[in-house]
Write a structure and sequence with these properties.
- The chain is α/β, with parallel strands linked by helices.
- The chain has a domain of 177 residues: Rossmann fold (3-Layer(aba) Sandwich), CATH 3.40.50.300.
- The strands form two sheets. Strands 6-7-8-3-9-10 form a six-stranded mixed sheet, with helices on both faces. A five-stranded antiparallel sheet has the order 5-4-1-2-11.
- α4 packs parallel to α6 and α5 crosses α6.
- The protein is globular, with a radius of gyration of 19 Å.
- The protein binds adenosine-5'-diphosphate and magnesium ion.
- The site of magnesium ion has 3 residues, from α2.
- Its EC number is 3.6.3.28.
């Protein structure tokens, strides 16, 4: 780190909520994430695409403070995560981040409202009224006292989103949130994300689905842990990002057989291939 960077300390200049600086996650010979740099401003809706095993979940776990990179630095709101102790990291997880997974991880013997209240519990406030409000936002107030087994897959995913929303997170991290849903429920979830985005929430969503990805303002594509493409879907968001000094996402690592500087790739083919290839992760 140079002098200018170390003097910067905790100051979050540039309005970037998230800054990944040359991060890698290495398991033996596998570079699950390979030398990736990315900055995400407050309020952006970003999609991460790529086929199975390309490192999407690993990257999300690092951003969500569930895992640490082998190399590189992660800053959230200007604070370097590696400088935080376990208690401070737990606070970041509960105060800043809302997680939505493909697998629902609902407690089977608790009702929808109680499952939402589990998230509140970690905030030391348990308020059924707030839990019901959160369920209302996702269109499930009349299902609040049902058990997960009495809910459809789409309804269970909406309970998970209500659970993620209960603490008003600045950042929603969603890993294949529509992976198990039919088209109708996919649309409901996307509409919810759209509303959250309009309210200023930053959203990072991992998806195989080209349609889901196209709703985001920007898409990045991973292949074997390497960033192989970046595409903006909103010229306005791009202009804003550049005006605030945002840099293109980048990697110094290379995909086998690819020439350095190959960005951007065609986003449609790999996602389609991945979709028909099927990801069981
Ligand atoms: P994706 O979510 O894109 O399907 P992952 O992030 O789950 O990909 O995995 C990326 C690569 O890292 C894969 O090759 C996977 O086998 C490997 N990997 C992920 N987690 C571990 C782990 N805990 N130990 C060893 N290898 C892992
Ligand atoms: Mg995954």
């Amino acid at each position: 780190m140079n002098k200018e960077q170390s003097e910067r300390g905790n100051v979050n200049d540039g309005g970037m909520l998230l800054e990944l600086d040359h991060i890698s996650k290495i398991y033996g010979d596998v570079h699950a994430v390979d030398d990736l740099s990315l900055t995400v401003p407050q309020g952006e809706w970003l999609a991460i695409v790529g086929s199975s095993g390309s490192g999407k979940t690993t990257l999300m776990n690092i951003i969500g403070c569930l895992d640490t990179p082998t190399e590189g630095t992660v800053r959230l709101e200007g604070r370097r995560l590696e400088d935080l102790n376990a208690g401070q990291l737990a606070d970041v997880r509960k105060d800043v981040i809302g997680l939505v997974f493909q697998k629902f991880y609902l407690v089977p013997h608790l009702t929808a409202a109680e499952n939402v209240m589990v998230a509140q519990y970690y905030h030391s406030v348990v308020d059924e009224r707030q839990a019901l409000e959160a369920l209302d936002k996702v269109g499930l107030k009349d299902r609040a006292h049902h058990l997960p087994s009495q809910l459809s897959g789409g309804e269970q995913q909406r309970v998970c989103i209500a659970r993620a929303l209960i603490n008003c997170p600045k950042l929603i991290l969603a890993d294949e949130p529509t992976g198990n849903l039919d088209e109708k429920n996919e649309r409901i979830v996307l509409d919810l994300f759209r509303t959250l985005h309009e309210q200023g929430t930053t959203i990072i969503v991992v998806t195989h689905d080209a349609l889901v990805a196209s709703c985001a303002q920007r898409e990045i594509m991973l292949n074997h842990g390497v960033l192989v493409g970046e595409k903006w879907n909103s010229d306005e968001a791009r202009a804003q990002y550049e005006a605030m000094g945002g840099r293109p996402a980048s990697t110094d690592a290379q995909v086998e057989g690819a020439q350095h500087g190959d960005l951007p790739v065609d986003f449609n083919d790999p996602t389609k291939t991945a979709k028909t290839g099927g990801d069981v992760r």
